């Protein structure tokens, strides 16, 4: 069986080199191209037509997520596996909405990465963690901006009791148990408006 | 000089495993790896490597604070900082804390190898000019508490991680809130981010299509 042809896009040279070496020894996977930004990734896809593109989300100068539709267009046959510093379900869901097949965090180990690459190559969509309801997202975003329960209630036209209930549900779903933890999660997931 | 022995600290497992593969390809031996700053310090104490390659942003104890500890518990170990961010302020602090090198993740792999070899031979390897020293209002303990708060830990958990009493943790927390002018958790998280104690994604531009 032909080896799986993989392209890697990450803006940090050390990370590119490290990933390439990690995957070089892996049976059935061939690294055919390595690029350092989204523009080169598009050109590379059109030319090399890899089976899978491992795409780092945090490349500067591009919102990694918005690059995905362009990359899909450059080579529709290539499956995109997004590589992220975080694995918040919101980000994974958005990546998939824009055309990726899944997201894997940099905190994963090499074996998990190889497994994810193989699954995505087979046409699978990787599972996403527990998603928040629209109301829960609203409450979380306001928590992230530093609003207390009373101001959130006023802003959203809810009772304080209801807001407290949503906050409890958020903590359960996200397995986060402090206010600061919720704030950090909100900011990481891009739920808060730019300052 | 015999084989250079390294302990490697980075919380991104994939990145860490990749760095290990890279170092070993240059016959540098990675004896231990760690995913957080406290475990890194323990690993250094256990194996006393020639070099500790330390990512700046690690959970539980960031790379700069870990450098301070490493210099105390294993003075023969030389510290090389690895960072995603070209921040001259970090470089200054790294130098002051006793690090012998500072390399960006954006630089060519060959630089890292060169840096490890240079530092192991007794030299320095700084890729950025150091900025003039800046005022830092928080004490090392206060910075530790702030990092753990921003990581979502409760006071009881912080006390356990730091091996201090709950009372002490509360005092540190109260003092750092006063110093930072912080009124709530969001202020603390923002301060932690600004001080580079935690790494959070930058707030996105509001997307009209969303």
Describe this structure in words.
The complex is a heterodimer of chains A (195) and B (210). Helices cover 51% and strands 14% of the residues of chain A. Chain A has 195 residues and is an alpha/beta fold. In chain A, strands 2-1-3-4-5 form a five-stranded parallel beta sheet, sandwiched between helices. In chain A, helix 4 (89-97) links the parallel strand 4 (79-84) and strand 5 (102-105). Chain A is elongated and about 60 Å long. Chain B is of the alpha/beta class. Chain B folds into two domains: 5-126, 3-Layer(aba) Sandwich (Rossmann fold), CATH 3.40.50.2300; 140-194, Winged helix-like DNA-binding domain superfamily/Winged helix DNA-binding domain (Arc Repressor Mutant, subunit A). Chain B has nine helices and six strands; from the N terminus they run βαβαβαβαβαβαααα. In chain B, helix 5 links the parallel strand 5 (101-104) and strand 6. In chain B, helix 2 runs parallel beside helix 3, helix 6 (140-150) crosses helix 8 (166-180) and helix 6 (140-150) crosses helix 9. The chains are: A alpha/beta (195), B alpha/beta (210).
Q: Can you identify the CATH class of the largest domain in chain B? A: Alpha Beta
Contiguous uncertain segments of 5+ residues of chain B: 203-210
User: What's the CATH topology label of the largest domain in chain A?
Assistant: Rossmann fold
* Main beta sheet of chain B: 6 strands, parallel
Content of β-strand of chain B: 5-15%
Amount of beta strand of chain A: 5-15%
Question: How would you name the oligomeric state of the polypeptide chains in this document?
Answer: heterodimer
Number of strands of chain A: 5
Number of strands of chain B: 6
């Amino acid at each position: 069986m032909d080896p799986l042809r993989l392209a890697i896009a990450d803006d940090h040279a050390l990370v590119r080199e490290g990933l390439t070496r990690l995957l070089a020894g892996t049976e059935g996977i061939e690294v055919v191209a390595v690029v350092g930004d989204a523009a080169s990734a598009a050109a590379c896809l059109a030319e090399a037509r890899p089976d899978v593109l491992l795409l780092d989300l945090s490349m500067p100068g591009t919102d990694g997520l918005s690059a995905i539709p362009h990359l899909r267009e450059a080579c529709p046959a290539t499956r995109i596996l997004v590589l992220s510093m975080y694995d918040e379900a919101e980000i994974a869901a958005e990546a998939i909405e824009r055309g990726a097949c899944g997201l894997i965090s940099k905190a994963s180990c090499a074996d998990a990465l190889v497994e994810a690459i193989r699954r995505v190559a087979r046409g699978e969509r990787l599972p996403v963690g527990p998603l928040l309801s629209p109301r829960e997202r609203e409450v979380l975003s306001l928590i992230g901006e530093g609003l207390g329960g009373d101001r959130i209630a006023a802003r959203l036209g809810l009772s304080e009791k209801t807001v407290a209930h949503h906050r409890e549900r958020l903590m359960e779903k996200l397995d986060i148990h402090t206010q600061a933890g919720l704030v950090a999660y909100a900011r990481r997931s891009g739920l808060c408006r730019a300052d | 000089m015999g084989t250079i022995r390294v302990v490697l600290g980075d919380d991104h497992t994939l990145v860490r495993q990749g760095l290990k593969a890279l170092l070993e390809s240059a016959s540098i031996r990675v004896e231990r790896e760690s995913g957080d700053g406290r475990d890194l310090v323990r690993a250094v104490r256990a194996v006393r490597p020639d070099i500790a390659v330390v990512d700046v942003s690690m959970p539980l104890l960031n790379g700069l604070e870990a450098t301070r500890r490493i210099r105390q518990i294993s003075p023969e170990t030389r510290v090389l900082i690895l960072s995603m961010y070209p921040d001259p302020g970090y470089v200054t602090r790294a130098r002051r804390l006793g690090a012998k090198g500072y390399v960006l993740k954006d630089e060519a792999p060959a630089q890292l190898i060169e840096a490890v070899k240079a530092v192991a031979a007794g030299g320095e390897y700084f890729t950025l000019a150091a900025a003039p020293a800046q005022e830092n209002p928080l004490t090392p303990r206060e910075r530790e508490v702030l990092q753990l708060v921003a990581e979502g830990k409760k006071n009881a958990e912080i006390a356990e991680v730091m091996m201090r009493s709950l009372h002490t943790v509360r005092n540190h927390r109260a003092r750092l809130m006063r110093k930072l002018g912080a009124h709530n958790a969001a202020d603390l998280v923002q301060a932690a981010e600004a001080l580079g104690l935690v790494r959070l994604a930058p707030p996105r531009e509001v997307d009209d299509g969303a």
